[in-house]
């Protein structure tokens, strides 16, 4: 990966749907060369995919909650993580150091839906001992962007 690849990635992180011609113009290369580099970055697994970010308010899922899940047996964390990952409203599942726990982020319509998911889908899973919920009141930044280095060795 070189400086040009990093420039391409920076442009794609800002706007994934940008045409290759526009990327080529900004970098000063031929569109075919840009397309070839993008395909190479995809094949190498540098680019994992492209996602559309929807407005959650338009789909009645504006409430965000983080749930700190304590497990009965941390040795089963992978299985518990996979089960939690199957719950559609859960957007992120992370295993945390320090307390042998899992933290999930989910989006729901309201506290009624949150309670139903907690009661019927999370706390009754095998391996879940306790769930502590934190409801988000305001969001100041939410992004999946990765800070890219100036150069890559």
Overview of the molecule:
- This protein has 153 residues and is an alpha+beta fold.
- It has two domains: 3-43, Orthogonal Bundle (Arc Repressor Mutant, subunit A), CATH 1.10.10; 56-135, Alpha-Beta Plaits, CATH 3.30.70.920.
- The chain is 35% helix and 21% strand.
- The protein has five helices and four strands.
- The protein has helices at residues 3-14, 20-27, 31-43, 77-85, 111-122, and strands at 63-71, 90-96, 101-108, 128-135.
- The protein has a four-stranded antiparallel beta sheet.
- A hairpin with a 4-residue loop joins β2 and β3.
- The protein is elongated.
Q: What is the mean pLDDT?
A: 93
CATH third-tier fold name of the largest domain: Alpha-Beta Plaits
The helix/strand class is: alpha+beta
| Content of β-strand | 15-25%
| CATH-level-4 superfamily name of the largest domain | Lrp/AsnC effector binding domain/regulation of amino acid metabolism (RAM) domain
Order of helices and strands: HHHEHEEHE
Record field, number of beta strands: 4
Task: Give the overall shape, derived from the CA principal axes.
Answer: elongated
Low-confidence stretches: none
**Can you give the helix content as a percent range?**
25-40%
- Looking at the overall shape, the CATH architecture of the largest domain is 2-Layer Sandwich
- Measured between the Cα atoms of the first and last residue, the distance is 8 Å
CATH hierarchy class name of the largest domain: Alpha Beta
Oligomeric state as shown: single chain
Q: Major beta sheet, specifics?
A: 4 strands, antiparallel
Count of discrete alpha- or pi-helical segments spanning 4 or more residues: 5
Query: What's the gyration radius in Å?
Result: 20 Å
